[in-house]
Design goal:
Helix content: 40-55%
Distance between the termini: 106 Å
Number of strands: 15
Strand order of the largest sheet: 11-6-1-2-3-12
Order of helices and strands: HHHHHHEEEEEHEHEEEEHHHEHEEEHEH
Strand content: 15-25%
Number of domains: 2
Number of helices: 14
CATH superfamily of the largest domain: LCP protein
CATH class of the largest domain: Alpha Beta
CATH topology of the largest domain: Aminopeptidase
């Protein structure tokens, strides 16, 4: 390269440097269009005095603290998204396997159920879910041992659970006077939904069924659940486990006994309360599961629940409620008394207290103080015997 070429090159380099200095001194508005924050942080350009990051060139970021259950929900979504978007076909197969575990094996039964469900008009509208617990043992006819009507208000991040005693006297279409738990045995999920809807006077949008045997495995996988046991339990009919009174961490077998036992002065009334305590404890434990453990937990949860929901629907609902703040959980039980009719022990719904409770629930109020029970005087052994075949 000759001298003339070298001089020309130097001149061009000096011109470029001068242009760069002029851009740098043109003010923040000009800089924001041409120079990113990273350029200041790397030292490529001098940092202006009025730059928001100060002399360091770093812009401070304010962090918003998330609640524990919000972190858990975000973790669920991130895991599912990573599985589908990041892992591709394998992740899609995983999510599909969860959907398959959640749904009904009998597609005809699913279609019959959908015929009884009433979809909500808007995703922000409150709706009702029927939550049943099936406790079939051996070859016996399966009746619903857990009967909980759940009102979900997505915009208020509120869930209200109302227990209906299994021996509640109702009229079942085609079967006359029966205990409400017989609807499931006679006609499966669809007849159970229709019977509960008529009993409560509200449309039911979704259905979920818990399987007790698989529930044991889920609770063990979660490392147990913590509940405040209201009374000492020693009930061989429920299982060969003794559970002390007070706060206890229950494993799967102990939790099953806690949900099954009726060995109380008021029989089924305390049991329904215990079932709501157990459902709440499971929800809290699932929400607190570390993100890396969520895939296995989600799979276990899907294996012990049958529902018309899909994984996508559940995640969408969870995110919608998460965005509204802290989750509020209310609970109560149908105001009831007990009585013997033609030698059969029934739980009799108290009116108009039941109608008043449902009006309060529909208004988003807490029904806890509206629960009243009155147990008829009868020999406890006779009561249990009267229930065994009904």
């Amino acid at each position: 390269m000759n001298r003339r070429q070298t001089s020309s090159t130097d001149y061009l380099n000096r011109a470029r440097q001068e242009a760069a200095r002029q851009k740098c001194s043109a003010g923040p508005a000009h800089q924001s269009r041409h120079i990113g924050h990273g350029a200041y942080q790397r030292g490529a350009y001098p940092v202006p005095d009025n730059y928001p990051g100060g002399a360091s060139g770093r812009v401070p970021v304010q962090k918003k603290r998330l609640r524990t259950w919000q972190k858990a929900l975000i973790g669920v979504v991130c895991v599912l998204f990573a599985l589908v978007a990041g892992i591709g076909i394998a992740g899609t197969m995983y999510v599909t396997s969860i959907d398959k575990a959640l749904t009904f094996d009998d597609l005809k039964e699913l279609e019959e159920l959908k015929g009884e469900l009433t979809p909500v008009e808007s995703s922000s509208d409150p709706f009702y879910v029927l939550l049943l617990g099936s406790d079939a043992r051996g070859d016996e006819a399966s009746r619903s041992d857990v009967n909980i009507l759940v009102r979900v208000d997505p915009d208020a991040a509120q869930v209200t659970m109302v227990s209906i005693p299994r021996d509640t006297k109702v009229e079942i279409d085609g079967y006359g006077t029966q205990k409400i738990n017989a609807a499931y045995a006679f006609g499966g999920a669809s007849l159970a939904v229709r019977t509960m809807s008529e009993f409560a006077g509200v449309p039911i949008a979704h259905y979920a069924e818990i399987h007790f045997d698989e529930l044991v495995q889920l609770i063990d996988k979660l490392g147990g659940v913590t509940v405040d046991v209201p009374e000492y339990i020693d009930d061989p009919n429920a299982g060969n486990v003794v559970i002390p009174e007070g706060e206890q961490t229950l494993n799967g077998t102990e939790a099953l006994v806690f949900a099954r036992s009726r060995s109380y002065a008021d029989g089924d009334f305390t049991r329904t309360s215990n079932q709501r305590l157990l459902v709440t404890a499971i929800l809290e434990k699932v929400m607190a599961t570390p993100a890396l453990e969520l895939p296995g937990t989600i799979q276990s949860l899907a294996e012990c629940v049958t529902t018309d929901y899909s994984v996508g629907d559940l995640v969408s609902l969870a995110l919608q409620m998460q965005s509204k703040g802290d989750l509020k959980v209310y609970s109560g039980m149908v105001p009831s008394t007990t009585d013997y009719i033609d030698g059969v022990s029934y739980v009799i719904t108290t009116e108009p207290a039941w109608s008043e409770m449902m009006a309060a629930i529909n208004a988003g109020e807490d029904p806890a103080d509206m629960t009243t029970t009155d147990v008829a005087t009868a020999d406890e052994g006779e009561a249990a015997e009267g229930d065994s075949g009904e």
